[in-house]
RNA sequence: GGAGAGAUGCCAGAGCGGUCGAAUGGGCCGGUCUCGAAAACCGGUGUGCGGGCAACUGUACCGAGGGUUCGAAUCCCUCUCUCUCCGCCA
């Protein structure tokens, strides 16, 4: 959620930024925000004034009662009583305006950073690095969905039997490989000073709002109605929400967390030929890194996180390219995102295996995640997160072959 | 699931319906003292929103949401959570 102050003070910059990500209605939405906000302030002002009067009068009533002037107190009491009805009206109005404002702000995505290129689709992304040599496969090479059958390491049919499509069963070496990768990613992060977190894999509604999955990704999360809990679509949700409504001190920074969790996504409406095999799943494993840092450090940290992920790919000897996503291809919450893609020779396309984002204050504002310095200055922090290379899910297809591009803002 | 107790500031903990944004202690920060430190003493120590260039000021906030009242941390209702005991436990 963008800061109201920023929208108020830098209206033009905000609109320009939103245009860069091809966001429709930026101007009218911003205008609505501003007019709702000014009404809100007006209302609050009236309410405060009225409250101040009632408070003073009430105090006076107490004094009058004490000094035995009961009839004076009585008439004053009646006047305050009638003021209270006006107070109610202002309170209702204020609450209504605040909700309205909140709803409007929820609809506005983050503003892309300066360096983010304008653009509408994946073609406008900029490749900032390439590493490794793309292998050439023999003519009879098979895609992974054939190989897993041949070696009996991942079984989709069994998964269908006990759960449904998109819930594979890993067997034998398949399960071991999975576990080895998780350990590898965790250990690599620990070596860099990350703290390992094992969070709950269900979260409440407040957490969903905190990191921005709610309200707009509502239908994409599994929901346990009885207990009102959402299955997490990414460890980002619980791990970042650890810091919801938190005021961190100098000693608490920087926050450097890593966590492995299974992730659950309904992926409603996204099935098709290009999501075959492990390309898109309802349940998959992921190791996520989450950073919470001072604003002035966040872009250095973003680079550091990318370097870390690249290091993982290099150790795994996977040829990759690094993309700076254009405005139109970025997730809703992000100010700047780098994607790492690995070339699948079998599928003959680039597959997104990692995505590292800086959200600046966008999430922190919603989370009320702030820092208080020794000098007493309070400011919103920057949050960042990234995936340590997908373990069994690939999210992006070849842009040229994939007409409908569906992005989410999870990773 | 049943019964009981509770939720107050960074922590502990007090708080007759009016003078309570909240005693007291600890912590932390600043100062005095000291060669330095400890001790002692003195002072300071919330967040959101509104107004103001600022000093400052208005308002809201004592788990959350409602209610009673001229006035609620204090009374009433609902919910959430925590603790204790009993039950259940793939």
Structural description of this entry:
- The C terminus is likely disordered.
- It is built from eleven helices and 16 strands.
- The chain has an eight-stranded mixed beta sheet.
- With 411 residues, the chain is an alpha+beta fold.
- The chain binds one RNA strand of 90 nucleotides through helix 3 and helix 4.
Task: Provide a brief overview of the structure.
The protein is α+β, with helices and mostly antiparallel strands and 411 residues long.
Distance between the termini: 17 Å
Binned strand content? 15-25%
| Whole-number mean pLDDT | 87
Q: What pattern of helices and strands is seen along the backbone?
A: HHHHEHEHEHEEHEEHEEEHEEEHEEE
The 3D shape can be described as elongated
Radius of gyration: 26 Å
Name the helicity range: 25-40%
Topology:
Blueprint: H1 4-9, H2 11-20, H3 26-66, H4 70-106, E1 126-131, H5 144-151, E2 154-155, H6 156-162, E3 169-170, H7 173-191, E4 195-196, E5 202-203, H8 205-210, E6 223-224, E7 229-231, H9 236-241, E8 246-248, E9 255-264, E10 283-293, H10 298-315, E11 320-324, E12 336-344, E13 349-358, H11 362-367, E14 369-372, E15 378-380, E16 382-387
Parallel strand pairs: 4-9, 8-14
Antiparallel strand pairs: 1-11, 2-3, 5-7, 6-7, 9-10, 10-16, 11-12, 12-13, 13-16, 14-15
This protein binds one RNA strand of 90 nucleotides through helix 3 and helix 4.
Keywords:
411 residues; alpha+beta; eight-stranded mixed β-sheet; three-stranded antiparallel β-sheet; 11 helices; 16 strands; 40% helix; elongated; RNA-binding
């Amino acid at each position: 959620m963008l800061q109201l102050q920023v929208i108020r003070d830098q209206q033009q910059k905000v609109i320009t930024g939103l245009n860069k990500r091809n966001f429709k209605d930026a101007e009218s939405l911003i205008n609505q925000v501003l007019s709702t906000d000014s009404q809100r302030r007006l209302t609050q002002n009236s309410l405060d004034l009225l409250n101040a009067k009632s408070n003073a009068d009430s105090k006076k009533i107490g004094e009058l009662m004490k000094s035995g002037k009961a009839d004076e107190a009585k008439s004053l009491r009646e006047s305050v009583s009638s003021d209270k009805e006006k107070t109610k009206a202002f309170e209702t109005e204020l609450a209504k305006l605040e909700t309205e404002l909140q709803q409007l702000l929820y609809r506005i995505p983050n503003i892309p950073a300066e360096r983010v290129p304008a653009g509408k689709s994946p073609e406008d992304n900029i490749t900032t690095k390439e590493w490794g040599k793309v292998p050439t496969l023999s003519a009879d090479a098979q895609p992974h969905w054939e190989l897993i059958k041949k070696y009996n390491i991942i079984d989709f049919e069994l998964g269908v039997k006990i759960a449904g499509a998109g819930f594979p069963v890993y067997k034998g070496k398949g399960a071991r490989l999975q576990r080895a990768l998780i350990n590898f990613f965790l250990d690599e992060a620990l070596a860099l000073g990350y703290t390992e977190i094992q969070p709950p894999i269900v979260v409440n509604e407040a957490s969903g709002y905190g990191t921005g999955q709610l309200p707009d990704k509502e239908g994409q999360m599994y929901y346990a109605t009885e207990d009102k809990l959402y299955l997490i679509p990414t460890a980002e949700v619980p791990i970042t929400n650890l810091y919801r409504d938190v005021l961190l001190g100098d000693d608490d920074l920087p926050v450097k967390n890593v966590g492995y969790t299974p992730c659950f996504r309904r992926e409603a409406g996204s099935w098709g030929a290009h999501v075959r095999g492990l390309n898109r799943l309802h349940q998959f494993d992921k190791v996520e890194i989450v950073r919470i840092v001072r604003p002035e450090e966040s872009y250095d940290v973003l680079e550091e996180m990318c370097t870390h992920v690249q290091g993982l790919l290099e150790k795994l000897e996977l040829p990759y390219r690094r993309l700076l996503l254009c405005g139109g291809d970025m997730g809703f919450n992000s100010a700047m995102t780098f994607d790492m893609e690995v070339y699948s020779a079998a599928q003959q396309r680039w597959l997104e295996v990692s995505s590292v984002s800086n959200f600046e204050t966008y999430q922190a504002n919603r989370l009320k995640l702030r820092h208080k310095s020794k000098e007493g200055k309070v400011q919103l922090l920057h949050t960042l997160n990234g995936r340590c290379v997908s373990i069994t899910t690939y999210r992006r297809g070849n842009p040229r072959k994939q007409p409908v591009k569906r992005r989410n803002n999870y990773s």
